[in-house]
Amino acid sequence: MEAIATLKLFLSSEEKDAILTSQDPVTKRFRQALRQRVTSRLAVPGLQAETITLGWWYPCAEYLSDAAMQYALEPTEELAAWLRSTTLTIARRPIGDWVGPWFRSHAEPLTGHLETAHVCWGVAAVLDLADDVFADAEQAEIREILYDKGVVLCRRWLQKNSHLANWRGILASGALVASAALGNENLLDEFTPELTRMAQAFQPDGSYGESLQYGNYLANALMLAYESLARKYPALATQLDIGAYGRGMGWMAQSMLYRKAMISWGDEPRARAVNFNDSAALFRPSGDLLLHVAARYDDPVQAGLARWIFQEYYEPSPTQGPHDLATFGMRNDWGFLTLPLLTKVGQALSPEATNLPLTASFSNGNTFVRDGWNGKSVLAIQGGNNDGVFAPGHLQGDLNSFMLAYNKERLLVDPGHSCYRNLIHGLESATQTHNSCTFLWSGTPVEQDSLGLQEDLAKIKLLEQQNVLARRLIRTDGTVGPPVERGGRLLHSERVGEVSWVVSEVAASYGSPIQEFTRCWLQVGPHVTFVIDRIRASEPVRTVWNWLLNNRDGQSIVQTNGNELTLHRHQSGLRLRQLGPAVLSGPVYGYVHDAYHPEPAQLGEGLPGSGLLFRHTDAQASTDVTRLSILIADDVAELDEWRITQDGNEVIVEKQALRIQLSGALAQPLALRIATGQNQVSITEETAGFVVKQRP
Hints:
Blueprint: H1 13-21, H2 25-41, H3 57-73, H4 77-91, H5 95-99, H6 114-129, H7 136-160, H8 166-182, H9 185-197, H10 212-230, H11 234-237, H12 243-246, H13 249-255, E1 256-260, E2 270-273, H14 287-296, H15 300-313, H16 338-342, E3 359-361, E4 366-370, E5 377-382, E6 401-406, E7 409-412, H17 425-428, E8 437-441, E9 489-496, E10 499-505, E11 514-524, E12 528-550, E13 556-561, E14 564-569, E15 572-579, E16 583-590, E17 611-617, E18 622-635, H18 636-639, E19 643-647, E20 650-655, E21 658-665, E22 671-676, E23 679-686, E24 689-695
Antiparallel strand pairs: 1-2, 3-4, 4-5, 5-6, 6-7, 8-12, 9-10, 10-11, 11-12, 12-17, 12-18, 13-14, 14-15, 15-18, 16-17, 19-20, 20-21, 21-22, 22-23, 23-24
């Protein structure tokens, strides 16, 4: 970590000179983009956001910090006047406004919330980078207000709450960054341990147990705290562990899908990502966070991957908006620290260059299977996590669910999430709206034989996964309690040639009477995925298989024929056939969301029917179920060419010269053989687990 003696928290004199004299084309483009971004706002007084429904809290941090950095690089009288007027207006707002919008608690004594921390970040950046826009008396006033309305409110939240979660990291970061701007070393000594503790919220491998979106949100807050210390208080900065999230760049790289234009979001290609739990499908890690890891982290592989993600998802379009929800992690963007950090970063390393595996599993339960880094298909699995959840919260009932993308089209999808205050949020978080199983049994408040219309299934209470977990508590001595058990285990993840074998068991997430729900994914090449489900229950249950198809733009065409459905989505297609007695029905019109927004009915919230939910439902209750589902993804023009034939314990999936033969026993103990051309792979279930071998 480079220690630079400077009076500024966020910009050293060396960094400023490097930015102003740089001939690097990337630096020059982002410098021009910052200038353009800030200049366009000068015509609008205050913090009017790009969307009229957005409260002033949400763009506060990014708008103020952008303007402050631009002023530090290229000061003008017009920009100084905007910064002075806007900052003083915010500072002089009633303390209740600093608490946040109406849906935050305003009970006395007032405590801070996420919005409070964001205001702290913005005002602190102005005090640090543009302090000379204020008269001495105004500076003194703002400093006093930043402490009374910012630091004190954040401290009250930290004192009132004793659990480890991303909220704690945001509030602690707000307090620490404000304290650094005030130059109060006593406050820095108070809050630095809070930020140090937050490293324990990440999984051991740097992934995050809540979601991609919230992992980024917390890491971005820790990044801001580190950067507020690194130049002026380097000894304190060394107490913060960049590796806690820095080692997760491989997970973030695996989570990214592609860039592609999205209807209603403009013509520019936009990043898509795997959006398990409360994450956005329109997602890219925050730009400043990526460059911070690239510049500061001492692991060259993870640093190179961070630089590569920035290169792939930011450099093609530095001016892509919207920018008014960036620091809240709802529409991630690059921010005011991008230019200083660009002066420090090294070379980008692609996933191929780092030998990032094509089949990879992580501590949070995410598993990714690709046919190639520039290939056709991505299978993303939410399996059980063997380490527990280090930061529980914002979870959905999605264990043993999965997504399938082919040729830059998401086919099987996760619903995502919209406004938390929507009545449908509970439903879009439930297991029945994910590509997993739910159950009907005698404890369900409807007689099994009386279930009539297919839409009745959407009205009754199903046996689903528990998705609200206990909090992970901080003990009185400051130590943190153990990770929280979610109820699932990833049993196996391995790749042999073009065959990937992933196994997850999640019965404990349902509770009684489910004793086993083991799901096995067997992917062979870019086209074919076998899904084997093994279910045991102490009482007879009727199993329901849920399949959520992407129809966010209303352009998907779905047909059913017996137990098989066919999806045509633009030029990509999916065939899904289940072998067995379950009856296929649908669609039920569900939701597929692009991104979160704090208000309802905003851009990013899916309409009814943006997700098409189909179900295979067993007609009879049973205590022991084993079932095989076959998924084929291909170009629409090729989809009908595939043939599926079954003869006893042998299933053949073939198209022209491609032939995949699956044979053997599905029931416990499982013993399978997969033959593709001249290659054969055997999978056997033994007492110690699964053994996968390639035969010549």
